[in-house]
Structures are given as C-alpha cells and as structure tokens.
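RECORD TYPE: inverse folding
INPUT: structure tokens
STRUCTURE:
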C-alpha cells in the first residue's frame, strides 16, 4: 500500500507537469499554463512584507492618522461590532503606519474550548486554550541596487484554561503522537520570530535570516496553515513526517528563488536545538535540520470558468538530530508543545534523550489546487526514516469552501488525515485516522466564531473505537 501511494503521487506530479504550457501571452483563455512571477511568489510565500512602501527615503509630506475613518474593506459581518470604539482607531492607525512608515502590524487573541466524548485512563475530557499573537513586518528600504529589506517579528503568549500545562487533548483521548490542538501554547511570552528578510532581482530572490519558522517556507498550505482560522489538528498544519524542527521557532536561514515564472525553489537551514523561548546560542552546537522544496504553480480553468491557481511541490528534508533532540527539548523546556508538533505527545518512545543522533531524512509531496473561485483542495503525503519524526508516514486531504453563504471571510473546511506512528514506541501504536470539519463565521467586524468537530476514527492507544472532540473557537482581531 505504501509503495503504491509513493509511486502514484510521483506519477501524478510528473504527468501533470508535462501537461502545462509555459506562461505565454498568446495562450488562449482557459489554457493550462504556468503562473506569472507575482502568483509564483505568493504560492511560495516569498512575499514577506505584503508590498508596503518602505520607510526610507522619508516622505516629504504625509497624511495624519484619522481615528474615525470607516474601514476600507468591510467584512459583511452578521452583527454590529461592540468593540468598534476600540478597534476602529487601532485599525486606522495600522493603515496609516503601513502607508506612511512601511510598518504592517496586527494583534489577535484566540480562545478555544474542546470537549471529548471519552478519554483514556480517566483523563479529563474538557480543556480550554487562550493565545495572544502580536506581529509586525517593517519594510525599511527598497532600492534598485541593494534590494528590498525589512524586519519580521512575532510575539506570542498562551495559557491552558482549566487544565495544567502538561495536559493535551491528543494524549487524553489516545491520539498521540497526533496533536488535536495546534493552538496550544504554554511557553512564557516570547519573541518567536525576529528575522531580517531581503529581496533582489525584482524580488525573484528572497533571503531570510534570524529566528524563523521553517513551515513559513516548507509545506505551507493556503487553506490549512492557520490554526486560529482554519483546521485545529496538527497534521493539517505542515507535514508531521518532516520532524519537529519544521514546526518550531528557531534560529535559521531561508533562500527563496523564482528562477522562471511558475517555478520556485525554497531552501531552509534551521537549528534543531532552538525553540520559541530560546535565543540563537545553540546554533554553534553542530545540530542541523535542512530542507529543499521545488514547486510548480499552475493556472487552470476552474469549474465555474474562472482562473484558479495551484501549488504543487516536492520536498526533501534531513537532520543529524531528530527525535532524540525533540525529547531532550521537551524535558528541558517543560511540557509545552510549542517547540514543535506536539512535544508533549512524545512519551513512550525508545530513543535516548541526548543531543547525539544518527542522520535521518524524509520527503513529502503536496498538491494544492483551486477547483473553482471559492473552492480549494489539498493533497499531501510524507514519508521518513524511523527517528526523523514520531510519525513516519502521513497522508492528508482537505477541502475548503470560501463564502458558502456569500459573506466575506466565511469558510467551511473538511479534512482527513492518516498517520502511522514510528515503530520506536515501546508499546506499538495503531495507525491513526482523523476527520476534522469547521465552519468559520464572521460574527462581527472583529470577531470570528468557528464551531469545530474532530472525529478520531481510529485512536493510536486505548479502545479501538471512534472518539468525538467538539470545539468552539473565537478569534478577535484588534
């Protein structure tokens, strides 16, 4: 079965790529072709600053912020916004700093409540999560000679509500090593991102150096990359087989290149010993995690006659410090799962918790494609050596329907994930099957409400029968 999935995915990528015409102005409307450079950079997430005008050189004259101005892009919410007196001045100030200073920033807070239909060993079945995110991106200069440069930053703080920090819903219901709550963040308040990014060659080449998140550049999905707005389960937030370093905030560097329209190459080097609450002091310790992703961005005709973009890619990753480092990091930093994909879920592995480890590697493939103007599909598969990750095989499929009832920023998502735990567990764990569905409602101009249902069709441990996890999430954007 695994060999068939490997061969089938590679054949799909090969056949599809040969059927695409190069980006050509003479191409007939609806003819499959490769995307232009802007669409390619968007798919590769190689546009870190959103295109803001830079701070330098200073403008001779500028406007003053207008706290009472109406919102430039209304969201068509269901109800009036009770927070408007607070939120409107903040948003207008954010618009002003973007237009006049090259500084984009945002603040949002997410609350989550989850309830499970049953648990293992009488573990609690109810838990809450609260997480605050404050981020900014500051474009400092844009020059034909030296390129375009700026700073990216993210400050994050999270708490567990009603349960100790050591609690995870995934472990409580027998889903481990699969994480059912990617929002959970029990580290102290920490600057998770702080990096310099610079582009050259008309922004076809972008470098990022500092404290980064490797999933910014590798296996990033447009429809399944934000646990505060989309899927909650960890399998949909990056490809878990590529190791815990893919999901952590750590010192590193990335290079993104668009050699020709419709094709991109992303490469990343990251420090596997780093973490959200750590600086860059462990970079010289000899540990490394590296990945290269080659992507294709096709433009096809959707079912409704519109042009729809895709993001088809193949990635290879390797490290000299894999599960052993993740286990050590979980021991040293306490119980948080913020250092990767669910470090609290790694109990039971027979791996020496030391900083030394043999080299491990893995690969993955992703096909993300628009089907219609408001409909997108995601297919993802990964495989790795035993000690690369707690999950050595994984297949994910997801569908997102935007604006199902005509309201802006509303969405319905449904996803399926199959994961096979590594055989390094002292007690073997079953292959895990998970289905998740959510509905995102634009409740007010600043609040999104998302009912969520996860059905653990087959847990890894405990009774071999389905578990239902009901969730409700409220995200407030200031």
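DESIGNED SEQUENCE:
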């Amino acid at each position: 079965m695994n060999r068939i999935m490997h061969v089938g995915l590679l054949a799909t990528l090969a056949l599809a790529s040969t059927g695409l015409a190069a980006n050509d102005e003479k191409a007939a409307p609806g003819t499959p072709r490769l995307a232009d450079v802007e669409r390619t950079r968007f798919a590769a997430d190689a546009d870190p600053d959103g295109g803001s005008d830079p701070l330098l050189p200073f403008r001779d004259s500028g406007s003053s912020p207008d706290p009472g101005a109406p919102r430039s892009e209304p969201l068509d919410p269901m109800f009036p916004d009770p927070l408007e007196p607070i939120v409107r001045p903040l948003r207008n100030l954010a618009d002003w700093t973007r237009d006049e200073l090259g500084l984009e920033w945002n603040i949002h807070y997410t609350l989550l409540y989850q309830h499970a239909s049953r648990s293992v060993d009488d573990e609690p079945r109810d838990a809450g999560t609260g997480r605050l995110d404050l981020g900014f991106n500051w474009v400092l200069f844009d020059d034909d000679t030296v390129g375009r440069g700026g700073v990216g930053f993210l400050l994050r703080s999270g708490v567990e509500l009603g349960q100790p920090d050591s609690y995870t819903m995934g472990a409580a219901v027998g889903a481990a090593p699969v994480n059912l709550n990617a929002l959970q963040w029990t580290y102290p308040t920490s600057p998770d991102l702080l990096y310099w990014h610079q582009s050259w060659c008309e922004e076809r080449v972008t470098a990022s150096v500092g404290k980064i998140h490797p999933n910014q550049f590798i296996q990033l999905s447009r429809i399944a990359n934000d646990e505060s707005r989309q899927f909650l389960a960890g399998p949909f937030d990056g490809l878990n087989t590529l190791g815990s370093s893919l999901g952590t905030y750590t010192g590193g560097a990335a290079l993104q290149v668009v050699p020709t329209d419709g094709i991109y190459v992303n490469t990343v080097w990251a420090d596997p010993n780093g973490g959200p609450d750590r600086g860059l002091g462990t970079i010289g310790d000899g540990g490394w995690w590296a990945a290269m992703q080659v992507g294709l961005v096709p433009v096809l005709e959707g079912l409704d006659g519109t042009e729809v973009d895709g993001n088809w890619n193949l990635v290879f990753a390797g490290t000299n410090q894999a599960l052993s480092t993740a286990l050590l990091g979980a021991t040293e930093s306490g119980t948080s799962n913020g250092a990767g994909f669910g470090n609290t879920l790694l109990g039971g592995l027979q791996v020496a918790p030391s900083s030394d480890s043999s080299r491990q590697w893995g690969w993955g493939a992703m096909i993300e494609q628009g089907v219609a103007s408001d409909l997108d599909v995601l297919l993802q598969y990964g495989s790795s050596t035993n000690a690369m990750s707690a999950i050595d095989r994984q297949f994910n499929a997801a569908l997102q329907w935007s604006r199902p009832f005509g309201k802006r920023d509303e969405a319905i998502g449904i996803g399926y994930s199959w994961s096979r735990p590594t055989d390094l567990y002292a007690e073997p764990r079953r292959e895990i099957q998970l289905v998740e569905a959510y509905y995102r409602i634009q409740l007010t101009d600043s609040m999104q409400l998302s009912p969520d249902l996860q059905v653990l069709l087959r847990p890894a441990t405990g009774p071999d029968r389905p578990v239902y996890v009901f969730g409700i999430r409220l995200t407030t954007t200031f």
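NOTES: Residues 2-21+33-477 form a domain with the Porin fold (CATH 2.40.160.10).
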